[in-house]
Amino acid sequence: MGAISITGKSMGATSLKLTAGKITKTVPITVLSRNLLSYGPAEGNGLTVTVAQDGSLDFSSGTESVPLHKGVRWGFDVPEGIVGVPLIISYTGDVPGNLVIGIYANANSLGGVYQGKNNTVVTIPKGTTRVELRILRGGVTAGSVSGNLKIQLELGNTAHEWMKPDVTSLEGGGL
């Protein structure tokens, strides 16, 4: 039995019309996001992250200073079929307060992005079943954070226009 892979341009429900000779079948399908990340609200180390209406992330520490190399994280299961293949992590928006965005597996950094460095290719090692998205305060001094980011992890080595991930309700925590 063969398989069909379909890439949609926008998320949601639609249908696919298949015809073979005189037989026609309409099959309902759901188009998922190409953004493989899972995240949601998180709070820790003086940093509060909320999900904006469009699915992007709003960052705020108010007047509180976020310590160096501290921030928030979300752990999630590795989506099927992405272990051992190139993935690209990218962002749009201003990286507020020298934030570093990274993908971690087994407490090891696979790669990340920050102001001045975007579009980093990473590979999830074979045998990995869970990864973490970590957003940490970088730079040389602690400081406040405020801004909005659209972060994406997708298949391949070319970043595309940001798409809201399928999961934006995963509770995160401090790191």
Q: Could you explain how this protein is built, in words?
A:
This is Tail fiber protein. The protein is mainly β and 175 residues long. It has one domain: Sandwich (Jelly Rolls), CATH 2.60.120. Helices cover 0% and strands 47% of the residues. It is built from no helices and 13 strands. The chain has a six-stranded antiparallel β-sheet with strand order 3-4-5-12-7-10, with no helix packed on it. The radius of gyration is 18 Å and the shape is elongated. The termini are far apart. The model has no long low-confidence stretch (mean pLDDT 89).
Outline:
The chain has 175 residues and is mostly beta strands.
Helix-strand blueprint:
Layout lengths: L11 E9 L2 E9 L10 E3 L2 E5 L5 E4 L10 E7 L8 E8 L5 E7 L2 E7 L5 E4 L6 E8 L8 E10 L17 E2 L1
Antiparallel strand pairs: 1-2, 3-4, 4-5, 5-12, 6-11, 6-13, 7-10, 7-12, 8-9, 8-11
